[in-house]
């Protein structure tokens, strides 16, 4: 008769889950999958999913998708990258699937999110230019003999 294996305790599995999530953070843009992560850490996909889900509340695939969506949001916030390029840059192979996941996680389409970020960057740039202009006018008015601003 085979002796039953002692049940693992979630608190003992936390370091494993942390290492796995760090791996996802470092490799999300690569073509990784549940099977790939399981092989990397020497677990079966089923065991890995169970372990990570029990300690974090989410399965591995959800962590990979979530990390990719966060990276896409950051790209849209910081650059003018188009949707297809962002999709590829963060590790998705299919723009339609990327769009569905983006809407699911961000609550809006990648195109709308990108446009909103572009508009916010433009507004910040206008504010910065206005402050620079005001500061320049103030400096001019402080020079001896310069006309003061009203």
Furnish the topology, listing elements before pairings.
Layout: H1 10-27, H2 34-41, H3 45-56, H4 60-78, H5 83-89, H6 95-106, H7 110-142
Helix pairs in contact: 1-3, 2-3, 4-6, 4-7
Fold and architecture overview:
It contains seven helices and no strands. Helix content is 73%, strand content 0%. The chain is mainly α and 150 residues long. It has one domain (10-142): Arc Repressor Mutant, subunit A (Orthogonal Bundle). The longest helix is centred in the last third of the chain and has 33 residues, at 110-142.
The CATH architecture category equals Orthogonal Bundle
- Tally of strands: 0
What is the CATH class name? Mainly Alpha
CATH superfamily: Homeodomain-like
Helix content: over 70%
User: What's the number of helices?
Assistant: 7
Named CATH topology: Arc Repressor Mutant, subunit A
- The 3D shape can be described as elongated
Rg over alpha carbons = 25 Å
Our count of domains comes out at 1
Ranges where pLDDT stays below 50 over 5 or more residues in a row are: 3-7
Order of helices and strands: HHHHHHH
Question: Which band does the percent of strand residues land in?
Answer: under 5%
Characterize the main sheet. Answer: none
Chain-averaged pLDDT: 85
Distance separating the two termini: 94 Å
